[in-house]
């Protein structure tokens, strides 16, 4: 068993922006941003990841963190 941790809330805070502004910049719906921010999303597509990385000027390793089974 493993887990990918979503760091969107941390990235938004570090960049001093908010979910509404991120939605406007990326064109993603507010509900998509909300679900990712609150770790309620169960899947995410490559287009969404790409848009978030561009808007937040980050890479996938910053957006997601792999948590090995031993650390759960």
Structure description:
This protein has 72 residues and is mostly helical. The protein has a single domain, classed as 434 Repressor (Amino-terminal Domain). Helix content is 53%, strand content 11%. It is built from five helices and two strands. It has helices at 8-14, 19-26, 30-37, 46-56, 60-63; strands spanning 3-6, 64-67. A two-stranded antiparallel ribbon has the order 1-2. The longest helix has 11 residues, at 46-56. The chain is globular and about 40 Å long. It starts with a strand and ends in a 5-residue tail after the last strand.
Quickly describe the structure:
With 72 residues, this protein is mainly alpha-helical. The chain is built from 5 helices and 2 strands, in the order βαααααβ.
Ends apart, CA distance between termini? 9 Å
Alpha carbon gyration radius:
12 Å
Share in β-strands: 5-15%
The whole-number mean of residue pLDDT values reads 92
Tell me, what is the CATH class? Mainly Alpha
- The dominant shape is globular
What is the helix content? Answer: 40-55%
Main sheet attributes: strand count, strand direction, barrel closure: 2 strands, antiparallel
Which structural class best describes the helix and strand composition? mainly alpha
Number of strands: 2
Instruction: Provide the domain count.
Output: 1
CATH level-3 fold name: 434 Repressor (Amino-terminal Domain)
Please give the order of strands in the largest beta sheet.
Answer: 1-2
So, CATH architecture? Answer: Orthogonal Bundle
- What do we call the CATH homologous superfamily? lambda repressor-like DNA-binding domains
List the total number of helices.
5
Compressed to H and E, one letter per element, the order equals: EHHHHHE
Low-confidence stretches: none
């Amino acid at each position: 068993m493993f887990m990918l941790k979503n760091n969107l809330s941390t990235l938004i805070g570090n960049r001093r922006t908010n979910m509404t502004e991120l939605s406007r910049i990326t064109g993603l719906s507010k509900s998509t941003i909300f679900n990712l921010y609150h770790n309620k999303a169960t899947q995410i597509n490559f287009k969404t990841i790409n848009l978030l990385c561009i808007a937040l000027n980050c890479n996938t390793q910053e957006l997601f963190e792999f948590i090995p089974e031993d650390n759960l």
